[in-house]
């Protein structure tokens, strides 16, 4: 969480903004995310806006598509609103830390067993979406939101393959460079192979703190898999189901993404989730609007 800044909206629809979800101004997140509460204090939500300078119409179209998704492992889009000049969506609040905040809470790169579990859940979510022809198109560290029950994919971009023209320029994605597959950076469409490339970048970030680490920075047990995900040849990248199998050999498919039971997390990460929850509960609505 981070205090609101001068240029942050005091209200988003019927909700009063309380704080930013992302620290550091949301660097690396392709949208602005706020913690907000209804004026009567009865409902707390995560409210999202397009990033400054982004295509608001396309962002709003992607939000509408994401609101139709029921796939496990995706951060839900519950309410859509706004105008063409100020579109927004909200999700019911649950304690969640963007992956960069997870590393900050832990004090550095995450241990390999945890990265395997997180990566397995993300791979399963992508596999279930890809079977239905859904491409996320926006996988990145800031788009991974860790809850007590595991990670969820936000910063949607879901179904982006159907929404983008093949000639859409890469800078419009809002993603950090390390998460863009070479073919996407060259202006190609978002596709399943691009999701796998970005998943490799997320795994690399989780285990090293960088989306584009040197090969020898990556632990030996993950080195070959991450390198394969980040292959410059789309045909050389593994399918998400194979990524899941290599990260968690013998894991039952269908039991990771969107889990409802708490997962084992380091104490410092649990503490950060608890602290955020307490701060949100204690946050008072402003007594006057700016």
Give the helix/strand layout:
Layout: E1 11-12, E2 15-20, E3 31-38, E4 44-50, H1 56-66, E5 79-83, E6 86-92, E7 97-98, H2 99-106, H3 112-131, E8 144-147, E9 150-153, H4 160-163, H5 182-185, H6 192-208, H7 220-229, H8 240-247, H9 267-282
Antiparallel strand pairs: 1-2, 2-3, 3-4, 4-6, 5-6, 7-8, 8-9
What does this structure look like?
With 290 residues, the chain is of the alpha+beta class. Helices cover 34% and strands 16% of the residues. It is built from 9 helices and 9 strands. Strands 1-2-3-4-6-5 form a 6-stranded antiparallel beta sheet, with helices on one face. The protein has a 3-stranded antiparallel beta sheet with strand order 7-8-9. Helix 3 packs antiparallel against helix 6 and helix 6 runs antiparallel to helix 7 (220-229). The longest helix is centred in the middle third of the chain and has 20 residues, at 112-131. The chain is globular and about 55 Å long.
Provide keyphrases for this structure.
six-stranded antiparallel β-sheet; 290 residues; three-stranded antiparallel β-sheet
- From the N-terminal CA to the C-terminal CA, the straight-line distance is 20 Å
Q: Please state roughly what percent of the residues sit in beta strands, choosing from under 5%, 5-15%, 15-25%, 25-35%, 35-45% or over 45%.
A: 15-25%
Number of helices: 9
Helix/strand/pairing class, anyone? alpha+beta
Short description:
Helix content is 34%, strand content 16%.
């Amino acid at each position: 969480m981070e205090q609101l800044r001068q240029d942050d909206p005091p209200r988003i629809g019927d909700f009063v903004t309380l704080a930013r979800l992302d620290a550091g101004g949301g660097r690396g997140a392709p949208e602005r995310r706020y913690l907000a509460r209804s004026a009567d204090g009865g409902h707390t939500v995560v409210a999202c806006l397009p990033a400054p300078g982004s295509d608001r119409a396309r962002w709003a179209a992607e939000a509408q598509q994401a609101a139709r998704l029921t796939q496990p492992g995706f951060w839900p889009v519950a309410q859509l609103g706004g105008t063409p000049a100020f579109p927004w969506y909200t999700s019911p609040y649950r304690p969640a830390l963007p992956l960069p905040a997870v590393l900050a809470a832990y004090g550095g790169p995450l241990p390999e067993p945890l990265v395997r579990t997180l990566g397995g859940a993300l791979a399963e979510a992508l596999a279930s979406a890809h079977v239905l022809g859904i491409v996320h198109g926006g996988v990145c560290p800031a788009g991974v939101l860790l809850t007590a029950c595991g990670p969820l994919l936000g910063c949607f971009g879901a179904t982006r393959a159907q929404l983008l023209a093949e000639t859409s320029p890469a800078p419009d994605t809002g993603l950090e460079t390390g998460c863009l597959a070479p073919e996407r950076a060259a202006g190609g469409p978002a596709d399943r192979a691009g999701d796998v490339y970005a998943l490799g970048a997320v795994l690399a970030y989780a285990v090293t703190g960088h989306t584009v680490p040197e090969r020898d920075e990556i632990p030996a047990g993950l080195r070959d898999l991450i390198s394969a995900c980040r292959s410059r040849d789309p045909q050389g990248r593994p399918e998400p189901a194979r990524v899941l199998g290599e990260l968690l050999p013998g894991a039952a498919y269908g039991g990771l993404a969107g889990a409802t039971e708490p997962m084992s997390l380091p104490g410092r990460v649990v503490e950060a989730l608890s602290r955020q929850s307490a701060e949100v509960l204690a946050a008072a609505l402003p007594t006057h609007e700016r």
